[in-house]
User: What shape does this take?
Amino acid sequence: MRISLSLPPDASWLDLTEQMVLRFGERAGFSEAMRRMLAGSILEACEELIRVGETVESREPFNLVLEFRGEAVVAEIEYDGRVPLNPHQAEAYEVPGVDADLGGVDVGSLWLHLIKRRMDRVYFQFRGSRRALRLVKYSRELGLERRAWVMALRPRLKPGLHLHLGDSKTLHPSGVLQKRGGVVLRLGPSEMFVVRRLDGETTLHDIYMAHVDELGLIQPAALSSLYESLEAAGMLAVAGEEASGSRWRAMLRRLINPDFTIPHADNFVTWVYDRSHFFFTPLGIGLLLAIGLSGVIPLWLHHAHVKMAVGELEAVFLDHPFSLAPLYLLILLHAMIHELAHGAACKRYGGSIPRLGVMFYLASFIFYCDTTAAWNFPLKRQRLLVSLAGPIVSFAILGTGLWVAGYLIGSGSAWEPVFVAFSVFNFFGLAMTFNPLIKMDAYYMLVDLTETPNLRDRSFRFLERRLLGWLGLGDDKALPATFRERRIFWWYGVLGSVATVFFLVVPVARLVHLLHAESVARGRIAFALIVCALLLARLGSAAFSKVKALRSREYKLA
Assistant: This one.
């Protein structure tokens, strides 16, 4: 059952709106008290929308959509995006719960907090030039009006999720729930108990009672929070979702981003680990580091020739473009070994590898090894070794490549420029890997060390809000954070910027200077290619983010 109404921004129409909402609630089977709560919340939101719309002289009509979905009434108010209805304008802001003290709430946002006291769900959506405020009220059986709204739901997990158990021998283990190519949620024993019973038939109330019997009491608010986290992560199956539509979307994704996975990935990585486990012992790690460090020797002995060879790379590859093929194959082989090192380190501590393969993205092949199971490891050093395994092996490969390049220097061999270029690529690859501003190995190690999930996104939003607050353009407290988190955000922002300059800008500047001084074309072609590649990557990322934002960007307040 669904009703849609387009209303002008005029308060004289609110009486008609109230009558329609009350009648709709009656047809949905709501009690009179719940109908009044629903109507009062919608009217309060409409009144605020009309009032705020006048401040920006918006005369565009807004749409009110009421929909009954069997267990809940969803009221959606879609309005002109110029109207600043959301007083916080921050995705991380959460409206206090029913029992929260509203004494310190800002007057401009009090209406939203009062609505949250009557409704079960309150959140904003972005839809291009339009915005929407969505209010959800779940029905209760007679006499259960005060029971938590989540208790009557029968959620079901989406197919294709990976559930990694921390210790399968434990009666109630913790674990990690993973969406393929998406979000990862760490779950404690209590949350895991609930998640493993989400079959689409059992209500959360029944799961709650089973939890009380086996694990003890759990707060209904904890179930609500878990449900919302699963929903926000896209891990819950949507009722009425067309399977054919899902198949078409999956086919389109595979066409745009081909992804080739290795069958029985866990068995293959286990086979690799069985034949390379020595390198994951302290002696083996020391040997790999020694090999990497030893690359300084040929670099020092032949530094003048290496400098000249780097400057001549442009001319060599322009005159012999087929030399790029073995270079590309070496880079792919290096990437594969790097990812296998992550997987083998994960296997050392008993983790499973659900996916291993290669995808084609932005005109390049990218190897990947899914080591999400490492989040279950109890010791931080184990998790850090999984992240460090790839860079340590890459460091050893860099040292080996430098020895080969030093041996070939001056020989006239066609492999000389290949291994010189290979060493240059490896050096920049390691510099990127150890840049904590990029979501690569160093970033995830820092997340684990600081125990701060989503460190990059949260710190950038925090610093942005703080700077805007200083300029008087926003609220610097819009993103709540503890004192410890604020310190981490500041340090991450400052040190991350310094690391970017040291590991990326300085080497690139030195390389451009060298090409300008040594190459036959003064590095103009190489420099132009570097700039174009960076611009295309940046524009592609920005375009993807823009399209995603236009489709649906949801700011949950509950």
